Amino acid sequence: MMTLPMAAATAFFFLALLVAVSTVLAAIVEHTFVVRQMHMQHLCKDTLVTVVNGQFPGPAVEATEGDTVVVHVINQSPYGITIHWHGVKQRLTCWADGAGMITQCPIQPNTAFTYRFTVAGQEGTLWWHAHVASLRATLHGILIIRPKSGSYPFQKPHMDVPIIIGEWWQKDLTEVEKGYLNSNDNDPAAAAINGKLGDLYNCSGVVENSYVLEVERGKTYMLRLVNAALFSEYYYKVAGHRFTVVGVDANYVKPYDTDVLAIAPGETMDVLMVADAPPCRYNMVALSIQAPAPDPQIQTFVSRGLVRYKNVAVNRTRVCSEQALTPKMPDRHDTATTFFFHGNLTGSLPPGHQSLLRQVRDRVDERLFITLGQGSICKGGNQEGSCKRGGSNESMLVAYMNNVSFHLSEKTVSLLEARWHRRNTTTINVTVEELPGRPARVFNFTDLALIPLIPGGKGEELEPTRKATTVRRFAHNATVEVVFQSTAALQSDSNPMHVHGHDFFVLAQGKGNYDAARDVGRYNLVDPPMKNTVQVPRLGWAAIRFVADNPGMWFMHCHFEYHIATGMATVFQVDDGPTLDTTLPPPPLDLPKCSHIKE
Ligand SMILES: *[C@@H]1O[C@H](CO)[C@@H](O)[C@H](O)[C@H]1NC(C)=O
Ligand SMILES: *[C@@H]1O[C@H](CO)[C@@H](O)[C@H](O)[C@H]1NC(C)=O
Ligand SMILES: *[C@@H]1O[C@H](CO)[C@@H](O)[C@H](O)[C@H]1NC(C)=O
Ligand SMILES: *[C@@H]1O[C@H](CO)[C@@H](O)[C@H](O)[C@H]1NC(C)=O
Ligand SMILES: *[C@@H]1O[C@H](CO)[C@@H](O)[C@H](O)[C@H]1NC(C)=O
Ligand SMILES: *[C@@H]1O[C@H](CO)[C@@H](O)[C@H](O)[C@H]1NC(C)=O
Ligand SMILES: *[C@@H]1O[C@H](CO)[C@@H](O)[C@H](O)[C@H]1NC(C)=O
Ligand SMILES: *[C@@H]1O[C@H](CO)[C@@H](O)[C@H](O)[C@H]1NC(C)=O
Ligand SMILES: *[C@@H]1O[C@H](CO)[C@@H](O)[C@H](O)[C@H]1NC(C)=O
Ligand SMILES: [Cu+2]
Q1: Which of 12, 57, 308, 314 qualifies as a cystine partner to 585, CB 3.0-4.6 A?
Q2: Mean pLDDT of the 574-585 span
Q3: Minimal CA–CA distance to 34: which of 69, 83, 1?
Q4: What start and end residues bound the annotated signal peptide (predicted)?
């Protein structure tokens, strides 16, 4: 037992050597991220925002598959910061995952930390974002991984075009985060495409700038979409053009032709668009989607940008209308279009991933059924005591998985450090519970009568819940199946569920209550898409499987900020494997310490 850390250290030494030898041909992509507050003007208002290198969105990280990425984060903001590399598998580098208090303490103000990891075995679009409080609304950027061979499984596009759908906030984001627990008004001021609000927003007659994409007729553009919004899934269209989806979450899919894209928070997408329309001007529109009433309704957010053809014909006015063409968008309450969009994607796996697919097809070691919903806890000390519910101010709403709302009480050490150090000491004592593998109580999860949060409502009886730090532990190389069930408990949102450190196969999705006897037969075990974020449909379910082969403590959560902040989360603990190259190395020496730990 005592020798474990030594073995790990030795393993790390040899691994480092191996990596040094095998990466002779791989490059190092190095960035310095200075996190700082800055004033920005939008909608006639000066707003203090926290950004990287003075940019919103932040700088793009562009790498080639197999490269090592090194990012020096220098924190000159007043907040503790972590940066999560969303979708990067972080094989044996859980320490660099950047999940606040899960894998590391935040980088304290006026200190620095260097993230080091490789981007291997994945190609396409990912992104990075702060993973503490709501600061990711302004602290994010794209992460592009291009194929090492230079060739794609489709014709090489003329140009890459990042399309980052985000939001503009005028409120203090750290206050917004606290407000979730007090149900304050927490809406963004606008939607944005690549940081531009677009010409649908104005104040005092001054129109906001739009994102403009200049295209050449006949060329093919690869739109690299990221949904960086805190709250909303979006529909995205470009008037007069169609798309071919070729990748999701940095995994190739079989080409899928469509004129509308649906992208949930945390999802990324690679999409080909041929500039084959008459050489005019075409609006692109990103429209927020929301569950219909009786779910609480917020304002709709629309951001508009422009596709403009170069070398427009001199006689343009005869060919083109005066106004740029605008796409006809789905209704903002249309949850069917996104359901079918996601359901129609099938994977196109590289040979290296076939053995994973074989393993999830042949063997399931752990089966979890996880309900996603809302409940309430009593305000004050005794959370499980008796208090008025149904929207009373004596209780507050929280989100949960299987009726437990994730809550970190430990403020001095991350869960990964606690696990690491417990190998040889008992002084670090973090109390965790096992996440239940299924709900203790079965009810009609998708009964619409459960939605309204009103005194005496049908949902009131099911409402009491509790908070805990939950973890689910998996043996190395276990095949895990998770069925997520979106419920109608006090709301009926969809839930974009994100797993850190592993991609998973999305085997099936459906409407209503999951029924294994009926639904297992519908699993796609032939060409399922591989993802890191699955959009679990509103009043429906989604089934995923993955191989737990990356040792560490991996956050697993809904990517709607309100849900993650109020507890729709847990941690997957993956054990070390039997060999040195399946064992997590020791923490980097400069891993941040929590400010209030006395050394
Ligand atoms: C236990 O861990 C500490 C660091 O956390 C290390 O300094 C010490 O040498 C370890 N003890 C043994 C017996 O491995
Ligand atoms: C400004 O915005 C308002 C509503 O937000 C809209 O009615 C008006 O047409 C806009 N004006 C311009 C010049 O875009
Ligand atoms: C006007 O533009 C169209 C399409 O670009 C072209 O076919 C046509 O010849 C042009 N007409 C004149 C008079 O230039
Ligand atoms: C694919 O989309 C069509 C409608 O566009 C729908 O009828 C079909 O059921 C979808 N397939 C899946 C597997 O979701
Ligand atoms: C709850 O609301 C009632 C009346 O609306 C008010 O009298 C009471 O002080 C509030 N209690 C708390 C704990 O905010
Ligand atoms: C560890 O936690 C247990 C259970 O909460 C508690 O009884 C024990 O005193 C704790 N030990 C330390 C060293 O904090
Ligand atoms: C569950 O609720 C839905 C919606 O209210 C209803 O259509 C369905 O019949 C119910 N299912 C069962 C098994 O009661
Ligand atoms: C959740 O657990 C609480 C106890 O903590 C219980 O009162 C409640 O009925 C449970 N609700 C559901 C939906 O399981
Ligand atoms: C994982 O299990 C599969 C069999 O299901 C086996 O072929 C493979 O070698 C195992 N991998 C490791 C790293 O243990
Ligand atoms: Cu959610």
Answers
A1: 12
A2: 96
A3: 83
A4: 1-26
